[in-house]
Amino acid sequence: MTYPGFRNPMRRTQAMPIAGYFDKLSGRAGETLALKASAETDAPVQAELLHLHLGDANPAAGGMKATTLADLGAFEGRHQPIDLGSHAALPAIALPDAARFSLRVQPWLLRGTPSVLGHAEGWEISATEDAVIATVGDIRLTLDVRLRRKVWYEITLAADSATGEAILGVRGLTAVERQPDPVDVRIRAGGTPGLRTGPVRLAARPATGGLHEAHFNGRLEDPRLDAGMDGTGGLLAFWDFSDGITTQRLTDRGPSEAHGHVVNVPTRAMRGSLWTGAVMKWTEEPRHYAAIHFHEDDLYDCGWETSLEVTIPDDLASGIYAVRLTQGPHSDTVPFYVLSGDERRNRICFLASTYTYQCYANYARGNLDAALRARMADWDTPRHNPDDYDLYGFSVYNFHPDGSGHHFSSRLRPMMTMRPGFLTFCDPKGSGIRHFPADTHLTHWLERTGQGFDVVTDEDLDREGVDLIAGYDVVLTGSHPEYHTTGTMDALAAYQQQGGNFCYLGGNGFYWRVERNDALPGMLELRRAELGMRAWGTDVAENYHQLAPSYGGLWRRAGRPPQVLCGLGFTAQGLFTGSHYRLDPAARDSPAAHLLEGITGPILGDYGLNGGGAAGFELDRADVELGTPETFVRLAVSEGHDSDYSIPPEDVLSPGKSMTGEPTSQMIRSDVIWYRTPAGGQVFSVGSIFFCGALLVNETDNDISRLLTNVLGSMLG
Fold it and tell me: Model confidence over 109-120: pLDDT tens digits?
């Protein structure tokens, strides 16, 4: 059987020669960031502080640009391991001579080698693709049972040290979502020492160096220990996974109160064996959602020790910085942001889309071919690509090996994709960069044109709220502000309600809802519910987040379409190709006519450092029904997109029929719009991921650059 995401076991020993990450992505002058680094040799690692200007290595852009600010010295290189994969850790329970361990199991991926279900010193239960195996001391019990994918079973292991008897049992369970397996088998053995007292691991076993191995891919539920071979001698421990779903805690409802915890954030709020289809939200009937889904590639925090502390100099201006680590021929450049202090230094604020960078972090696309490798070598860009490495976890665009989607993405790990110069595509007409490096097209343009700016990140805005940006005259987004929390959406809405000016300079923005909570700093959760242009979808009745019980999916489905915030919303996606805009003649006689000064038209943006044009890849349109103000002015609209562009599922009723009633061909466009808010502020939105890629063309002497210059002049006037 094949399914999305299936691959061989993790490549756990293949590591980058040198890699690092910070404990925080941003700070203010005087604050200290902890840099965690791992190197494959013990040679000294040199560290330099850089001010990043341009993260595009394309010769047509002039190549990457950074200023070296300080030598941070050297530290001794050392390998720091990563305990990849999730598991549960349960404390030791005092056991009588005769005891029984049981748990419910739903396998999603079993291989020829054993996957551990439960492990303690002296005993273990595991499963392969064609057997369930238990060991008690030196005795091995094997049931030739082929557990079916996504079917629930109860597996029990009982042993009596007084009699030396052990029993392993497997029984299929009835569940509404699948036809049960009628299996109900047991095997006995003699000469066992019984179930010894000791800490228990679920879904993996301890290995050397504090790591774990033999991970289980699938769901576990209701582990318990009872006295007696048949379990009737009294409850010893029962770990109820339906309690504490928003946490990493595992609650023991037994007399010992032997509470445990999970490691590396496996997925909770999953349908369990008791789910009947009667409820769709886990908070309404938690016992129906008592399953935890474990994966061999889950990862929260690499847990590395600090290699270097970086104190932000008092005189460092707000901006984008990095520490470059070098060991012999190998290097890694780890970026961070500096926020302004209490007194604003500039009137413009650039909102770095760090939640989107994080959601895409380590996206293994499967496109690392010879052409892309050659481009990386020719342009001297970072050589490390997620297609080559499993060790650092993946993105919310990837599947786990068992076919389930990645619900989580952490920043407490090396993020290969968040590096200056990282190449996503071998773009025949441009740079082929996205997200972090692509947004430096905008920030470097601000520098080149003398527009002073400060930087704020999504995480800062989420944590500190609208007060963080309230003092700025203009807030700018980057090229793809796709992922947002309730906190960031509320702050941006409040900023506009206070009269702030807002420039949305990307495409497919404010699209997916993500969640976080304070107990797991640096972690984001995504549930891809219902609709949307998506890499995978959540399973039935699993649409509510575990970190906070909000409904997942599109902000549009939560009643907050992007059009309400910025006037535009996602309308089409194609391959990595760009096209141009055509000016709307009516705009020259509109309240926004001053924004077109010096622009002759009628065509603009038929150039760009990504895809060869300013309008492309992912596009947004105005829609009054979804919240675009009726007073908006359309300055330009894109045209001439390739035939591979299509509208997203949320706009489709049936083949050829759109939600709006428009022909779908007319919905494949990027609108450039302007309007005033009721509070008196201005909103300018471009609806294209490629727009900022045109700003630097011809040394910034072009119509796209001129348009944005006019907009900022109006907003700052």
Answer: 999 999 999 999
Using DSSP's 3-state secondary structure scheme, residue 372 falls into helix
Measured CA distances, 205 to 109, 238, 295, 512 (Å): 17, 20, 13, 36
Domain residue ranges of the chain, discontinuous segments joined by + = 18-82+307-335, 87-294
491 near 466, Cβ under 8 Å? yes
Query: How many Å apart are CA 539 and CA 269, to the nearest integer?
Result: 11
Q: Give whole-number Cα distances, 76 to 21, 27, 303, 609, in Å.
A: 16, 25, 18, 40
Nearest-10 Cα torsion for 577, 583, 584, 588: 160
Alpha helices for 82-121 (secondary structure H): none
* Spatial distance between the Cα atoms of 639 and 58, rounded to a whole number of angstroms: 26
Provide φ and ψ at 495, rounded to 5°.
-60, -45
- In Å, what is the CA distance from 515 to each residue of 492, 534, 544, 551? 17, 17, 10, 10
| Paired strand residues for 622 | 568
Q: Report the alpha-carbon distance of residue 86 to residue 107 in Å, rounded.
A: 15
How do 512-515 and 483-484 pair as beta strands? Answer: parallel
| Residue of 358, 309, 337, 314 lying closest to 468 (CA atoms) | 337
Instruction: Report the C-alpha gap between 247 and 269 in whole angstroms.
Output: 11
Q: Are 241 and 224 in contact (CB under 8 A)?
A: no
Pairing of strands 682-685, 501-504: parallel
Answer left, alpha or beta for residue 385, where phi above 0 means left and psi between -120 and 50 means alpha. Answer: beta
Percentage of the chain modeled with pLDDT above 70: 99
Q: What is the largest CA-CA distance in the chain?
A: 95
Calpha distance 559→234 (Å, rounded): 51
| Burial class for 582, CB neighbours closer than 10 Å (0-12, 13-18, 19+) | middle
**Inter-residue contact 595 to 601 (CB < 8 Å):** no
Question: Per this entry, what is the length of the chain?
Answer: 717
> Are residues 241 and 271 in contact, defined by beta-carbon separation less than 8 angstroms?
no
And the tokens for 581? 């805009």
pLDDT, one tens digit per residue, over 540-558 is 999 999 999 999 999 999 9
Task: Compute CA 633 distance to the chain's CA centroid, rounded to the nearest angstrom.
Answer: 35
Closest CA to 366 of 388, 350, 383: 388
Residue 507's CB is within 10 A of a number of other CB atoms, namely 29
Report the distance separating Cα 171 and Cα 185, nearest Å. 7
Query: Under CATH, which number does the domain 87-294 receive?
Result: 2.60.120.200
3-state secondary structure of 605: coil
DSSP 437-470: HHHHHHHHHHHHTT--EEEEEHHHHHHH-GGGTT
How far is the C-alpha of 444 from the C-alpha of 451, rounded, in Å?
10
Q: CA 143, CA 145: separation in Å to the nearest integer?
A: 6
SS3 category, 431: coil
Distance between CA atoms of 382 and 715, rounded to whole angstroms?
A: 38
Radius of gyration, CA atoms only, the chain:
28
Binned at pLDDT 50, 70 and 90, residue 196 comes out as: confident
* Residue closest to 384 by CA, chosen among 361, 353, 403: 361
Q: Any idea which of 40-44, 82-86, 249-253, 658-662 has the lowest mean pLDDT?
A: 658-662
Strands 205-206 and 212-213: antiparallel
Domain 18-82+307-335 class? mainly beta
Q: Looking at residue 344, what is its pLDDT?
A: 67
Q: Which residue has the tokens 């009596």?
A: 160
Strands 568-583 and 615-622: antiparallel
d(CA 387, CA 531): 27
Q: CA 146, CA 277: separation in Å to the nearest integer?
A: 27
Token representation of residue 339: 């926020």
Closest by alpha carbon to 439, among 464, 419, 460, 425?
419
Q: Which two tokens stand for residue 677?
A: 């808010």
